[in-house]
Amino acid sequence: MMGGLFYTGTRILDKSRTAVAPLERLKILLQVQNPHNIQYNGTIQGLKYIWRTEGLRGLFKGNGTNCARIVPNSAVKFFSYEQASSGILWLYRRQSGNEDAQLTPVLRLGAGACAGIIAMSATYPMDMVRGRITVQTANSPYQYRGMFHALSTVYRQEGFRALYKGWLPSVIGVVPYVGLNFSVYESLKDWLIKSRPFGLGEDQELGVVTRLACGAAAGTVGQTVAYPLDVIRRRMQMVGWKDASTIVRGQGGNSVEYTGMIDAFRKTVHSEGFGALYKGLVPNSVKVVPSIAIAFVSYEVVKDILGVEMRISD
Predict the structure, then answer these.
(1) The model's pTM
(2) Residues of the domain holding 170
């Protein structure tokens, strides 16, 4: 039964990802496009350009890999968060001597960060090749035929370490992104339950719309704070890709090479300005409401169906 419910929950997540796949692809294209070969200038123009040049399939390029990645990523993330929360709470109660103590927002941040790092590291090669598949166009010199073909090609041509390009900024970005997601989400829920605003009765539970709002707010805060690290991660993933399209390499055939995360930050800001660290933020912000919010609500609904009484913060 639990396996079936988890499958149902992950199918809901896949559908939410698919619904915002065009915005996700546009975000990555904006993040990595060569400043000397601008093809995407904004959300509306970018979506129209993809439709005109690549058709309907172009809007969903890379979505299959993203959906395949999200199942193990979500499973590891939420399981790790529950385990980390329980372990941190046990240590906190033992240290404070208060058996009724609850997790503070800071401790929730730590538990969320631990879960995010574990899940991200476990599935990072899938995310790396997803970025490359997403950036491919019909004019790319070489085509990855799918996730497994991309994984084997990168491994064969660039080595195992290439599958973890951009891993460091991803790890650093997990703290504000995943950590704040859980922390803000749970803190908002606690505030609503305790203060009972907007006419909430004493015995009323939070509805789906209220949970959606909490999830959307949490996702917006987390992704905005961590977004520059996401841009750097995507750019580092493109380094060494000799068959990249002109979107990455530019008309002259030369793409920017980075020796590491700090070098990537320095060269990006120096050549394109500080605003380059937020390229693609608009489509990313638009998609955060349905994708992150639905993920949290699906998680809560599945837990309710399973009869799990323990809340995340417990």
Answers:
(1) 0.77
(2) 2-306
